[in-house]
């Protein structure tokens, strides 16, 4: 039993040359598992580890957390100590600089540009091959990739139909009155709120003015707390 315990502990902390990205953008070693904590995500030093509900400890795969005894249990005869999760690393890449949203000098947008543009909502659009990004203040920006400065949005000249779909990119879209969100595997999904906030788990979201709590299950706004909503699957443009 001691040999098995040592193998689990040593194997869990083995280093790896690759890394995995957690839903909030932080990085863990390839041999670790992203676990949610009260401030975001941390790294469980086991591959496919079990994240304990106290959001501070974790166990190896196929074990379950025993918070009373502070052990990882598997069958009645196999128990090992819980380990504390390690802090996840911030990405090594530089952060994208954000410029204040400025009113364009010329509001006229060519028809060809509009047809290939990425719509953030029913009023604002970004150039093709860019991504709509929302500032914490609620303003929209166009994110350019790879890592370059953000540019101001172009306001559409004509009044856009309120029922017009929201384009996530040149392939996927959401229905009007919703918000495009990135799912847990990078796929597009739709938050059923206009200007909604996408939660860190990639599954839930909150309405405008609310913020997701660390569990992504509750939306908070001052003294108000309401359950978050599940995102819907984005549709493919024909």
From TrEMBL:
InterPro entries tied to this protein: Granulin, Granulin_fam, Granulin_sf
Annotated keywords: Disulfide bond, Secreted, Signal
Main location: secreted
Subcellular location: Secreted
Occurrences of domain Granulins (ranges): 52-65
Tree of life domain: Eukaryota
N-terminal signal peptide: 1-16
One cellular component (GO) term of this entry: extracellular region
Pfam families: Granulin
Family: Belongs to the granulin family.
Protein name as it appears in the record: Granulin
Natural source organism: Liparis tanakae (Tanaka's snailfish)
């Amino acid at each position: 039993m001691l040999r098995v315990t040592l193998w689990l502990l040593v194997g869990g902390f083995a280093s790896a040359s690759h890394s995995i990205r957690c839903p909030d953008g932080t990085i863990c070693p390839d041999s670790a598992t992203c676990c949610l904590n009260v401030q975001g995500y941390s790294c469980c030093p086991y591959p496919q580890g079990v994240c304990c509900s106290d959001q501070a400890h974790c166990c190896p795969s196929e074990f379950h957390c025993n918070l009373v005894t502070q052990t990882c249990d598997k069958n009645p005869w196999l128990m090992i100590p819980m380990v504390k999760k390690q802090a996840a690393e911030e990405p090594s890449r530089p952060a994208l600089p954000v410029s204040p949203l400025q009113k364009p000098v010329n509001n006229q947008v060519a028809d060809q540009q509009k047809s290939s543009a990425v719509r953030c909502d029913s009023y604002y659009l970004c150039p093709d091959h860019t991504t709509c990004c929302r500032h914490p203040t609620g303003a929209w920006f166009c994110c350019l990739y790879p890592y370059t400065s953000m540019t101001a949005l172009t306001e559409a000249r004509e009044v856009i139909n309120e029922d017009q779909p929201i384009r996530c990119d040149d392939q996927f879209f959401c229905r009007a009155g919703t918000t495009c969100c990135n799912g847990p595997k990078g796929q597009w999904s739709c938050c059923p709120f206009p200007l909604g906030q996408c939660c860190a788990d990639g599954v839930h979201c909150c309405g405008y003015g609310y913020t997701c709590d660390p569990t992504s299950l509750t939306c908070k706004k001052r003294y108000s707390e309401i359950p978050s909503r599940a995102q819907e699957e984005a549709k493919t443009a024909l």
